[in-house]
């Protein structure tokens, strides 16, 4: 059972940057999809970035967010730049393998002046 733990959230001013991490409890090998979701307060969870055979981004974050795959430390990253107030909320990573899928608990981002 893979455990995912997100970190790196916090309070940042508009225009600022954060680097979010999704750390896995074991090495992720083989084929997988890795997705980052954003859930704003009172709103539905939305995909912002996904790695499959290619990278895909939600239109509103393209050019500002960069997703990366798991590295040798079993950590995947989401670099978020030029933050806007509407980017505030919880960010969760989701890992889907051929046999199972896993969620982290999320990390909170607050963009405010």
List the helices and strands and how they pair.
Layout: E1 4-7, E2 10-12, E3 18-24, E4 33-39, E5 46-51, E6 55-57, E7 65-67, E8 75-80, E9 89-96, E10 101-103, E11 107-111
Parallel strand pairs: 2-11
Antiparallel strand pairs: 1-3, 3-8, 4-5, 4-9, 5-6, 7-8, 9-10, 9-11
Quaternary arrangement of the chains shown? single chain
- Poorly predicted segments: none
Kindly provide the radius of gyration, computed on alpha-carbon positions and rounded to a whole number of angstroms.
Answer: 13 Å
Distance N to C terminus? 40 Å
Question: Care to count the β-strands?
Answer: 11
Quick recap of the structure?
The protein is mainly β.
What does this structure look like?
The protein is mostly beta strands. The protein is 0% helix and 49% strand. It has no helices and eleven strands. The protein has strands at 4-7, 10-12, 18-24, 33-39, 46-51, 55-57, 65-67, 75-80, 89-96, 101-103, 107-111. The strands form two sheets. Strands 2, 4, 5, 6, 9, 10 and 11 form a seven-stranded mixed β-sheet that branches. It has a four-stranded antiparallel β-sheet with strand order 1-3-8-7, with no helix packed on it. β5 (46-51) and β6 (55-57) form a beta hairpin. The chain is globular. The termini are far apart.
Task: Write a concise keyword list for the protein shown above.
113 residues, mainly beta, four-stranded antiparallel beta sheet, globular
């Amino acid at each position: 059972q893979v455990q995912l733990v997100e970190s790196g959230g916090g309070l940042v001013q508009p225009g600022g940057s954060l680097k979010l991490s999704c750390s896995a409890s074991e090495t992720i090998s083989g084929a997988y999809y890795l997705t980052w979701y954003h859930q704003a307060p009172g709103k539905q969870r939305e995909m912002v970035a996904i790695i499959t055979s290619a990278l895909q981004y939600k239109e509103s974050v393209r050019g500002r967010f960069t997703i990366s795959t798991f590295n040798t430390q079993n950590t995947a990253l989401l670099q978020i730049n030029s933050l806007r107030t509407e980017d505030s909320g919880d960010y969760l990573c989701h890992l889907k393998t051929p046999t199972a899928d896993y969620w982290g608990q999320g990390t909170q981002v607050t963009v405010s002046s």
